[in-house]
Specification:
Shape: globular
Order of helices and strands: EEEHE
Number of domains: 1
Structural class: alpha+beta
Distance between the termini: 24 Å
Helix content: 25-40%
Largest sheet: 4 strands, mixed
Strand order of the largest sheet: 3-2-1-4
Strand content: 35-45%
Radius of gyration: 13 Å
Amino acid sequence: MSHWHYQVMRHTDSSGEEYYAIHEYYEMDDGDVWTENPVDVTGVSIEDLKKSLVCMYRDIDNHGVRNYD
């Protein structure tokens, strides 16, 4: 069984500088995968946007930071 969550990923740019971005992350039995591009913070309403932000915040606390490789 697989499921997804928001995941903070540590990136390194071409000059060697680190930065962080939120991706969707899928935990699977045969290997984890994540979205190539960071997620946008958008919603069809203010309440929808707030819900997305709360989920992102909760998942940051629950899952920490992973390296984007």
